[in-house]
Automatic annotation (TrEMBL):
This is OsmC family protein. It comes from Rhodoplanes tepidamans. Pfam families: OsmC. Transmembrane segments: none annotated. It comes from the Bacteria.
Length: 182
């Protein structure tokens, strides 16, 4: 579900992405639509309650923690919040790429997300009665403030970005997941 909401903030000038490099990337995708890339992350428990270090490429560790109500130290987003952040970032990238591809001048992009989750099972140590595990609903509001587009065109770009978001597609569609002992 997406909603267009006008953003009337005036941040620093929006640094554009290179439209020619975006076109080249799109052309590359069209030339081999079957290309698959494996994305890797390594998660290591830090030993400080529920705080975890997540290693991606050669970047500094991305920290995930729990809030005090879930026995964490509240030093970083929890896993569900990190999932929503990944989803919002992926949709925002799609909005930006599609706005640039259409020649629009971007003033601001923001994506607001919220999700509903029943946490009474406490990771399998609490109430284990039958219930959905994980998020049961996600609401996403896309804010896109651009020059050169009608409201209908903005609605279309939001729907298009949502339809082609890899993270949104992963959340919406069943994905085989294999869990094994290392």
């Amino acid at each position: 579900m997406s909603t267009v909401v006008a953003v009337k903030t005036t941040p620093a000038p929006f640094e554009p992405i290179d439209a020619e490099r975006l076109k080249a990337l799109g052309d590359k995708g069209r030339s081999d639509p079957s290309a698959v890339r494996t994305v890797k992350v390594r998660t290591v428990a830090e030993g400080k309650r529920f705080r975890h270090l997540n290693y991606v490429r050669d970047l500094a560790a991305h920290i995930v923690d729990e809030p005090p109500g879930l026995l964490g130290d509240d030093t970083a987003p929890n896993p569900t919040e990190a999932l929503l952040a990944a989803l919002g970032s992926c949709v925002a990238v799609g909005l930006q790429a599609n706005a640039v591809a259409r020649g629009w001048t971007i003033r601001a992009i923001a994506v607001e997300l919220e999700g509903d989750i029943n946490i009474t099972s406490v990771w399998g140590t609490g109430d284990l009665s039958p219930k959905p595990v994980g998020l049961t609903a996600i609401r996403l509001k896309a804010h896109l403030d651009v020059d050169g587009a009608t409201d209908a065109e903005i609605e279309e770009v939001i729907a298009h970005a949502a339809a082609w978001s890899p993270v949104l597609g992963t959340v919406k569609n069943p994905v085989p997941v294999e869990v094994v002992r290392a």
